[in-house]
Amino acid sequence: MRRHQNCLVCKKELTGRSDQKYCSKKCRDTKNNENYLNRNTVLRKRITEIKQNKKLLDEMYRLIGEKPVPANLFPDHLFKESYTGTTKDGNIHIAEFEIRALNNGMLQIHKHKLQ
Ligand SMILES: [Zn+2]
Question: CA 99, CA 54: separation in Å to the nearest integer?
Fold first, then answer.
């Protein structure tokens, strides 16, 4: 029994094998590309957030360098999983920048040299 009467993309009536889903290679490629884009939506969003955070840290670093800053002056979203990792000391890492927690409730941006 045929499961798909019409092409899943263009709705054109199918005339081939009973398990056929698409009328042409073009429609199959269209659907595959759509699936690929949907699969990577979360990843692309995350990469965009990390790039934005890196840019923000870059600007902050140019203004204040490694001077300690009160933690409450740091943008909250930098600490909501939009970073690339944590160091062994528990500091947040965004690209070449590390946000270090100092003992006195202050934070410090440290810039690592990229190789
Ligand atoms: Zn089609």
Answer: 11
- Taking a C-beta distance cutoff of 8 angstroms, is the pair 100, 64 a contact? no
Helix axes 25-39, 41-64, angle to 10 degrees: 40
Note the residue count of the chain.
115
Question: CA-CA distance, 40 to 34, in Å (whole number)?
Answer: 10
- Ligand 1 center to 21 CA (angstroms): 8
| Measured distance between the N- and C-terminal CA atoms of the chain, rounded to whole angstroms | 60
106-111 and 69-70 strand pairing: antiparallel
> What's the predicted TM-score (pTM) here?
0.67
pLDDT tens column, 24-79: 999 999 999 999 888 888 888 889 999 999 999 999 999 999 999 999 888 888 88
Ligand 1 ion: nearby residues, β-carbon < 5 Å: 7, 9-10, 12, 23, 27
